Amino acid sequence: MSTQELTYLFVGLSFALYIGIAFWSRARSTTDFYVAGKGVNPLANGMATAADWMSAASFISMAGLIAFMGKDGSVYLMGWTGGYVLLALLLAPYLRKFGQFTVPDFIGTRYYSRTARLVAVLCLIFVSFTYVAGQMRGVGIVFSRFLEVDINQGVIIGMIIVFFYAVLGGMKGITYTQVAQYCVLIFAYLVPAIFISILMTGNPIPQLGFGDTIIDSPTYLLDKLDQVTLELGFPAYTENIKSNIDIFCITAALMFGTAGLPHVIVRFFTVPKVSDARKSAGYALVFIALLYTTAPAVGAFARVNFIDSVQDTKYVDAPSWFKNWENIGLISWNDKNNDGIIRYEAGNAFKDGRPKFIDELGQSGERMTANTSDISNQNEVYIDRDIMVLANPEIANLPGWVIALVAAGGLAAALSTAAGLLLVISAAISHDLLRKTFKPDITDKQELLYARLAAALAIFIAGLFGIYPPGFVAQVVAFAFGLAAATIFPALFLGIFSKTINKEGAISGMLVGLIFTFSYIAYFKFINPSLNQEENWLFGISPEGIGFLGMILNFFTAIVVSRFYLPPPTEVKQMVETIRQP
Fold it and tell me: 544 and 524 share a domain?
């Protein structure tokens, strides 16, 4: 079978599996829809949590960022894994003991306020839609390349698949679907990594091959990568370029943002007991580590193979994978000196950074662009960082079934997280806005209907974000983590560990964190992107890391404002005391 046929087969079988599981485990009550009936086994929940958390950013984009950022990319590894430890230790067991359906449920009850619940819903929607944009974009990229459809059409296909198993199955269906998706995505990530590690270093363990010598050579892989990147005008691969304060703030924003992600937190509401929440966290950390310890190796392998494959190659002799990705606009060649040879080095190939394509082909068959060349450098290649993991098996000439497997894995990663996020949005609208705020008299059956309608609406909006994305997948996701760190985490942490924070303090803190963080990100990324440079940033902190400062402002505001108003009622203090008891 051809690679294309294998891809259709693998993706088709995986989709059939997901929809079949969703139908088998479909939700029949609001408890099923929101928290899977609170009866999920800790091992299965750990696997589902890992799939829910390891999104398109983890599978598709993280290794790509590491491939191009080098050591600076370690902020994603440290932030996302460290944050999960915080979540497991500081929040998960206590929120499970609280025993309700959603994060706004906890905030609304703990801070005895409808307004606090509404602000939490607002923050949750900001975070979730920012996050889901990256997932739908990842779905579009995979479909466009491997199933040969337009990226926008790929997003629409992904929307339809998510609609089936999220709207039909609810949390119960999503949980068991995510177990299957974890198996698919981890197998799809590890198999090509092992293949390439053997081919490049002779070591079958990617985590060790990453630091090993190149096969039939005394040179270490990372030493070669440092040498090659320096020769091409890039910084050395193993050196930091970002300032220490920015590295610290990005890592912290990702850590605390992870601990405040509503779609991950709600997973701990699905197990029978508090002790099971801790077990789930332990299992999930093991499952997550399998991918996260492999990502640096995948990034390094991809960068070496990419440079070796295209550098100083005649365009007419360019490898097939290069032209495959060029056909969908995620790689572009701009022949600045008209010599017909591909030249890749530091700098932008185009003046606007990214190519803007027109519906014409050049004499050599390359896609024509509407924007002009950046003559300040000699680089002729634009490459979208999000394709590196997906293209890696092709660059390394691996068998067709491995390429097909990676396509199925990328879709599993993106769809699993998208479904979890969309369910959280659905629950926030149907449960927190309608049942607990504006329509308290609706029945369980009506609430379930509203939840499904809200999920359908959320899927439509998420698709629009996927079609009009605000950046690379991992960058978009980093903004979501920053918003979560600045809004949700402080409210949860203070709600559990402080009996003195009142509703006025919590509401003020969340609003300050949200407004400050969102405004900073919007200004530098969308309003004035030309100013998005270190000398213009506040204290040298990038938009990816500003969520940490937003979190500090949230804590400070909540504590100070609480001093000027009445303390929480006695029953609230007793509730806090109860959920903190083992």
Answer: yes
Sign of the C-alpha dihedral, residues 130, 132, 135, 137? negative
Neighbours of 230 (CB within 10 A): 14
CA–CA distance, 62 with 85 (Å, rounded to integer): 19
227 & 80 share domain = yes
Do residues 551 and 520 make contact, with C-beta atoms less than 8 angstroms apart?
no
Tell me, what CATH number does 424's domain have?
Answer: 1.20.1730.10
Q: What is the CA radius of gyration of the chain?
A: 24
Cα within 13 Å of Cα(326), Cβ side: 21
Which residue range is the domain that position 353 belongs to? 303-395
How do residues 440-471 score in pLDDT, each as one tens digit? 777 777 777 887 788 778 778 878 877 776 55
| Residues paired with residue 314 on neighbouring β-strands, in sequence order | 341
pTM score of the predicted model: 0.81
Closest to 551 in 3D by CA, of 497, 488, 478: 488
List pLDDT tens digits, range 250-298: 999 988 988 877 777 777 777 787 778 778 878 888 888 888 889 899 9
59 close to 135: Cβ distance less than 8 angstroms? no
Same domain? For 53 and 33 the reply is: yes
> DSSP readout, 179-203?
HHHHHHHHHHHHHHHHHHHHHHHS-
Q: How far is 224 from 231, CA to CA, in rounded Å?
A: 11
- The three-class DSSP label of residue 381 is strand
Mark whether 144 and 278 lie in a shared domain: yes
